[in-house]
Write a structure and sequence with these properties.
The complex is a heterodimer of chains A (279) and B (234).
Chain A lengths: L2 H5 L2 H26 L3 H20 L6 H21 L4 H23 L5 H10 L9 H20 L1 H9 L1 H6 L4 H23 L4 H15 L3 H26 L3 H27 L1
Helix pairs in contact in A: 2-7, 2-10, 2-11, 2-12, 3-4, 3-5, 3-10, 3-11, 4-5, 4-10, 7-10, 11-12, 11-13, 12-13
Chain B lengths: L3 E10 L2 E11 L4 E5 L6 H8 L7 E6 L8 E4 L4 H4 L5 H6 L14 H13 L15 H15 L3 E5 L7 H16 L3 E5 L3 H7 L2 E4 L5 E4 H5 L2 H7 L6
Parallel strand pairs in B: 3-7, 3-8, 5-6, 6-7
Antiparallel strand pairs in B: 1-2, 1-4, 8-9
Classes of the chains: A mainly alpha (279), B alpha/beta (234).
């Protein structure tokens, strides 16, 4: 079948729409996460989301999104709090919450699941093998609404996010409400992660968040250029990965991440070469 | 009325005070240098003055028309900033952020102000350059321009010349003198005793002995003689 024939199917069109939106959202805050040395928060939260999904599955909820969203947002806020108090160091707290959620999630699924194909379910949640291709109409709409919200928040608070990312102390000292905006960033990240679970599964979300940012940082020199370019990279890589996976039957999540990785290596190489010439 | 008044201030973390009974005040147009050994609490004092951490006791008052968020701040550079992908313009402009409130974009006046600050520090030609590719001295000027966007009245400088070579250090001190001559109050934390004595008119020496007063008085004090001998009179 050719590409055009594939696009006749609604599930392929849904997957493309949602894929593009998720790619766009996840890349926007990626730059901030990488620069604030928060890359692991995305990873930790994705494991929490997995735990939330397990609870939803055990409770036999038909629509698990709201519960997963709530659990992830609460964890994001908690992680940020512990990072500030520093009783347990930030990275240790993240590791603790993330593996804890992973273990409890799997345990719950094992103990209470009524499904006949348990390992298949777990694999789907972790690597998102097919969920993007089985989206319902209402899930597509929810994704669209949340994505528009994320992009709107990002544009509205762009300059504040920049100020806080570059120098939080300065921003705070000169009267920016850094606590409030950090909270906002954490909540938005949680929303993005829950969205992105459909696309790549919970283990691979970090890749979607950090690869475009890292790639863009190899090539561009202003925050705005890096942000725009990360968004473009992310969308292009996701669409490429999606189409490749639909046509050749490879798992969606890992194909997208593989494309992201390839793009990063390319950017790294180009960055090295141009830097060498300038020197 | 002084711009900044500290009364019976105690500083530290979680109940463990590093410094106690600290009293000093800074009037408009003064140049105060804060001296002290490593670990004497200079940076803690700076963070407290900026409102980044609360004092254990005592109070910090601002007066003479100075609001608490009108203090410009030149921080020591962090590791994150050294390879931050941002243009000089983006960084200088971010100094205006504190005055924005909920407004999402910068006004024409704020942009003009950022341009003016860059002109003052002779970094206009660097506008589009990437921050991480600049030299240490240039980076300090960029951060100083950002601090100027945040204030017209009072600048707090935290070890502004750390890691700079002697020529660039002199250039930076000259710039700070220029800003001081324009009527901006300067509070500088420094290791550099000689520069402090050259430019400052008031000295705050913290450590096991605390001194606050004019430079002339400081030169006569035991505190100064102890510091010269290389020990903070432990």
């Amino acid at each position: 079948m050719t590409l055009l024939e594939y696009l006749q199917y609604p599930f392929v069109r849904y997957a493309l729409i949602v894929g593009v939106l998720i790619a766009l959202c996840s890349s926007l805050l990626g730059v901030t996460l990488v620069l604030k040395r928060f890359s692991f928060i995305g990873d930790g939260l994705s494991h929490v989301a997995f735990g939330g999904l397990a609870i939803a599955a055990v409770m036999n909820l038909t629509n698990e999104m709201p519960l997963v969203l709530a659990v992830t947002v609460v964890s994001a806020v908690l992680l940020l709090r512990t990072g500030q108090n520093a009783k347990i160091k930030g990275d240790a707290a993240i590791a603790m919450i993330s593996v804890g959620a992973l273990a409890i999630g799997y345990l719950l699924m094992n103990l209470f699941s009524t499904s006949s194909n348990l390992s298949g379910d777990v694999c789907t949640t972790l690597f998102g093998s097919t969920s993007i291709l089985t989206l319902t109409r209402s899930e597509v709409w929810l994704s669209i609404v949340l994505s528009v919200l994320v992009v709107a928040i990002f544009i509205f608070f762009y300059h504040k996010i920049f100020a806080i990312t570059f120098d939080e102390s300065f921003a705070k000292a000169t009267g920016t409400h850094t606590g409030l905006y950090n909270l906002l960033i954490a909540i938005v990240i949680a929303v993005i992660i829950v969205l992105a679970m459909n696309l790549v599964g919970s283990l691979l979300i970090s890749a979607l968040v950090i690869f475009p940012a890292l790639s863009a940082m190899r090539l561009f020199k202003s925050f705005k250029a890096v942000t725009v370019c990360a968004a473009v990279f992310s969308v292009v890589c996701t669409v490429t990965g999606l189409l490749v996976s639909v046509m050749s039957g490879t798992p969606v999540g890992s194909t997208i991440v593989a494309v992201d990785l390839a793009a990063f290596l390319l950017c790294w190489l180009v960055g090295k070469l141009t830097a060498g010439r300038a020197a | 009325m002084a711009q900044l008044i500290c009364r019976d201030l105690a500083l530290g973390y979680d109940g463990g005070a590093i410094l106690e009974h600290l009293n000093f005040e800074v009037n408009a147009g003064e140049y105060l240098c804060i001296l002290g050994e490593n670990g004497s609490g200079k940076s803690t004092l700076m963070r407290t003055l900026l409102g980044l951490q609360p004092p254990l006791s005592g109070e910090i008052r601002t007066g003479d028309g100075l609001a608490h968020n009108e203090i410009g701040y030149l921080p020591q550079q962090t590791v994150v900033q050294r390879d931050f992908p941002a243009s000089v313009w983006e960084i200088v402009l971010s100094g205006c952020q504190g005055g924005c409130g909920m407004r999402p974009f910068y006004t024409k006046e704020e942009k003009a102000r950022a341009a003016e600050a860059m002109e003052t520090l002779s970094i206009t030609p660097l506008t589009k350059r990437c921050y991480r590719e600049l030299s240490g001295g240039q980076q300090q000027r960029v951060l100083l321009a950002r601090a100027l966007c945040a204030t017209r009245k009072l600048l707090l400088l935290d070890e502004p010349v750390a890691g700079l070579d002697p020529r660039v250090t002199q250039e930076l001190y000259a710039l700070i003198r220029k800003l001081h001559a324009r009527g901006i109050t300067i509070i500088m934390i420094s290791h550099d005793l000689h520069a402090a004595l050259e430019d400052a008119d008031h000295i705050l020496h913290i450590g096991s002995t605390v001194f606050f007063g004019t430079k002339a008085d400081y030169l006569q004090s035991d505190c100064y003689r102890g510091f010269l001998k290389g020990g903070d009179a432990q």
